[in-house]
Amino acid sequence: MKATAAQRYGDPDELRFTDVPDPKVGPDEVLVRVKSAGVNPVDWKILSGALDPLLNVHFPLVPGWDVAGVVEQVGLAVWEYEPGDEVIGYVRKDEVQHGTFAELVSAPVRTIARKPASLDWHQAAGLPLAGLTAYQSLARAEAAGGETVLVHAAAGGVGSFGVQIAAAKGLRVIGTASERNHDFLRELGAEPVTYGEGLAERVRELAPDGVDVALDFAGGDAVAVSQSVLKSPRRVVSIVDPGVKEAGGMYHYVRPDSADLTELARLADAGKLAVNVDRVLPLSSAAEAFRVSQEGRTRGKLVLEVS
């Protein structure tokens, strides 16, 4: 099969569009014919070697954890799916090697769910990792309807989902972004504020009594700013800064979860969760997609078209 792969750690230029063996299909896995694959910052961070202390990475490495495609074969113990089913997945396995930037990927059933009918293939591929990150972060903070949540980097891939999911749960949402993205945030259901110096004061103007929950999808001083405007400093969740735990908050690293994916699909089909695709590139241009992602200026998701 065709795939984009690297033979060693390095920058995006290490990626080659090449032939690799078809994946094996384990007893509790399905073989997915990939239509589209989502690109996330973690993909190029793995390629750079930055996550080597945390993950068992093997070469040749086919990156990618997000997928939307069609089940082509099911494992011996799989009863939930059959060939022809359309699925989405956050296909993170214990060993990192056989990713979704390929024509075929084997996916454990715990990592997939049925594709939302309302989304096209590119939109569907952009949903799993970022959508799960936002959904699970809100769950970790025990955010409830009627509360106010501050979302940092609210116009980004994860943040835009966080805004919509929070709004769907009945929360008031304040989102940080550059001024050029303020109208976009209003469309998603957030009250925008400009990030940077003086952010805490701008948040207090909107929420004089403080906010209930803060989600750090940006890094930098987001945790410190959040705790200065939170009613309880404990209720900040960061996906960027593990030091948040020492400050009394919570750190979250997204987990594959079929039930959570199913709920995201339900929200999408109910018209409460849109996927903004910033750019679609061919699978052979994965290196370019990585460079675009590294610039950190995308609004929404980057997606690779596979088949």
Automatic annotation (TrEMBL):
Source superkingdom? Bacteria
Task: Please state every residue range assigned to the domain named Enoyl reductase (ER).
Answer: 10-304
Specify where the region named Disordered lies, as residue ranges. 1-22
Compositional bias (Basic and acidic residues): 10-22
Q: Which Pfam families match?
A: ADH_N, ADH_zinc_N_2
SUPFAM superfamilies named in the record: GroES-like, NAD(P)-binding Rossmann-fold domains
SMART domains the record matches: PKS_ER (SM00829)
CDD domains with a match to the protein in the record: MDR_like_2 (cd05289)
- What this protein is called in its record is NADP-dependent oxidoreductase
What is the species listed in this Swiss-Prot or TrEMBL entry? Saccharopolyspora erythraea (Streptomyces erythraeus)
